Amino acid sequence: MPDQACWICKSPANSHEHIVKRSDLKAIFGVPNSNAPLFVHNASEQNVKAQGLKSKALKFKTPLCAKCNNEISQPYDRAWERLSEHARTRTPPVKARGVIRAYRAFAIGSSKEMRRVQLFFVKLFGCAIVDSGAPIDISPFASALLNEKFHPDVFLKFGYVPREDQIVGLSPLVAAHHPKTKQLVAASMFYELGSIAVRVIYSPDHDAIEDTDTAWHPAYDRGRIEVHDFGPLLKSIE
Asked: What is the pLDDT at residue 37?
């Protein structure tokens, strides 16, 4: 069988991206082992045991090359790791209708680091597109990652979910089409970390759906991130 190509740079692929960032899994669950494994649930499988944070069950099926998954995207991963830690541990805790201020997570260069946060989710969204076979052109996602330029059509909407269970994961990618033309209007997915979630929205027409009006985007926003109430929305899709 010929080697699969990395969807970002087209080099031979030999690495796999975590569906949920490894540092997020470790922060919430600790390090799983044979006595305390993680159990992965998705649309096709239930109770898949992951005995370590490197388990294939915790990663996308679509491979990347090691350079793209590590060296090129490392600044994006680290930016999200810092913002995630700040959002999960800050005092007072994040709540709906509150605000996260980027400069509190990034003492220097918060605008640049927030652009990198978007690129972290651009990488996840690209992996989800390829894994699901969604009819979305992947080349602008690859270009954004390789050139460290934000994706013009990817928005982030941060939210709070009041829950006691530690639900962590990535929802399936859901696409919306125009009722008459059948063209893709938008696609989105949720990245969940307990009571905090990020909705990643891809919308080629920025005016096509109202959610882009209240979402965060590096071209239009600075360091003020509104926190929305995701409780009713996420409860309805669990």
From this structure: 66
Cα 73 to Cα 64: distance, rounded to the nearest angstrom: 11
Which helix (H) or strand (E) element contains residue 202? Answer: strand 196-202
Predicted model pTM: 0.92
109 φψ region: left (φ > 0), alpha (ψ -120 to 50), beta (else): left
Query: In sequence order, what DSSP letters do the residues of 101-126 get, joined into one string?
Result: EHHHH-SS-HHHHHHHHHHHHHHHHH
Residue listed under structure tokens 């109202």: 210
Phi, psi of 121 (to 5 degrees): -75, -25
Q: Tell me the backbone φ, ψ of residue 107, rounded to 5 degrees.
A: -70, -30
Number of helices (H) and strands (E) in the chain: give both, helices first: 7, 11
The token pair at 26 is 């470790």
pLDDT band at 238 (very low <50, low <70, confident <90, very high): very low
Continuous H helices in 10-73: 22-29, 66
Compute, in degrees rounded to 10, the torsion defined by CA atoms 177, 180, 182, 185: -30
238 CB-near residues (< 8 Å, 6+ apart): 167
Long-range contacts of 130-136 (CB under 8 A, 24+ apart): 130/7, 130/60, 130/62, 131/60, 131/61, 131/62, 132/172, 132/173, 134/173, 134/175, 134/187, 135/184, 136/175, 136/184, 136/187, 136/202
What is the rounded average pLDDT for all residues in the chain? Answer: 88
Of 164 and 88, the one with more pLDDT: 88
